[in-house]
Write a structure and sequence with these properties.
The protein is built from 3 helices and 6 strands, in the order H-E-E-E-H-H-E-E-E. It is an alpha+beta fold. The protein has a 6-stranded mixed β-sheet with strand order 1-2-3-4-5-6, with helices on both faces.
């Protein structure tokens, strides 16, 4: 589903799930915008960003350890199992929930 969302927004997308790479998707637009996405699924309420940061701490640490160009955006997307994605920008000092991924 995340792959299809990115394609619909005009991104070129490569799947990395199942590899040793910390992100599941690498996406870019011809304008130069780059996005690395780690996707997760849950059946429970995930709460606020602090709760998400604790729950997915290992994944977030692996994303932060990557050496990236300064203009690349790194995000954690969490699917609630019903109909909603929640998007979080991953930064060196923590995460911040955003309303959209572009």
């Amino acid at each position: 589903m995340a792959y299809n969302l990115l394609i619909a927004k005009g991104y070129q997308v490569v799947r990395c799930a199942g590899t040793q790479f910390p992100a599941d998707l690498i996406a870019w637009q011809h304008s130069g915008h780059q996005l690395l996405v780690k996707t997760e699924r849950t059946r429970t309420q995930i709460g606020n960003p602090a709760t998400v940061a604790m729950r997915y701490r290992g994944d977030l640490d692996a994303l932060r350890a990557m050496v990236l160009p300064h203009f690349a955006r790194v995000q954690l997307w969490v699917w609630d199992g019903h109909s909603t994605w929640r998007y979080f920008d991953v930064m060196a000092g923590g995460i911040c929930e955003v309303t959209d991924y572009v």
